[in-house]
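In this supplementary section we document a worked example of the pipeline. Step one takes a protein sequence of length 353 as its only input; no multiple sequence alignment statistics are reported here. Step two produces a three-dimensional model, which step three serialises into structure tokens for compact storage. The input and output of this example are shown verbatim.
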Amino acid sequence: MPGVERRLPSLTKRVLLVTVIAAVAGAAIVLWVWRSKHPADDPNRLTLYGNVDIRQVSLAFNASERIAELRVKEGDKVRAGDVLGVLDMRTPRVRLAQTEAQIGVQDQALLRLKNGSRPEEVAQARASLAAAEAEAGLAALQVARLQATSDATAGKAVGQQDLDNARAHQKVALAQAEAARQAAALVAKGPRQEDIAQATKQLAVAHTEQALIQRQIEESTLRAPADAVVRARLLEPGDMASPQRPVFTLAITEPKWVRAYVAEPQLGRLQPGMAATVSTDSEPGRGIPARLGYISSVAEFTPKTVQTPELRTSLVYELRFMVDDPQDRLRLGMPATVHLPLLPAGETPAAGR
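The serialised model returned by step three reads:
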């Protein structure tokens, strides 16, 4: 059948054309899918592999007392200033009361020195001086009387021993009168400036001791230094705390970054501030916004945690990508993949960036 034979070649050509078009379309789709899964093959994009880094802090009480209360446990989220634990402060409070009493004593002693001698004390000193001078005068009269009697009787009416005793008593009375005179002068002058200065310093020492104990009481409350998550609770109520024994380990939730490494050929097409996307194995389809925050100025050998075959034995530069993770999806040490566009070839990174 000639008509049928003429239509067969035309039909074959159409089938062949459709097949070719379908194959090309399929290849394009496969290539697009493959490129989406392998962005590193795009010369204008870079894919890096690294790990999530988070700053950590170990918290310890700055006093050696027994722990009375701990208010958080592992996994709890804390805000800056939140109270995490409290020490037993009964002993420091007793010491504080004792120090405050000592301050009162020292304060009154200093006040007494500054006020000087009272009028009654001056009058008392003068009266003591008058009594001593009267006693000295009486002793002098006694000596004169005995000496006159002895001279009149050629030493027969008064013995030499009596005369010597009277003269010794006179010397003692004169000395006591001089001591009373000096004491009256000291009372009139008042306290020495050195005594006032010493009392002032002793009062300052007592105030310093009070401030130290008050500071110790304030530090009996352990507070979170920043927004964080409790990673470990290392002590329990009843344990003896000290500055050398951490109570909590906190993971600071902000900032977070991914530490990655780049080979030298790509270094010239990077600059701080470049936008990037971070993904993890647990959520490969959900990118987390990030930016390039730090480029190391020193080359180093690739850490063995970076498992890309091309970089395992290369000299590389450390990069840190600051991550915006308000949902707290990233954890310390988690493997992460970073995707970022490179600067166009030949373009110089902006100065000062």
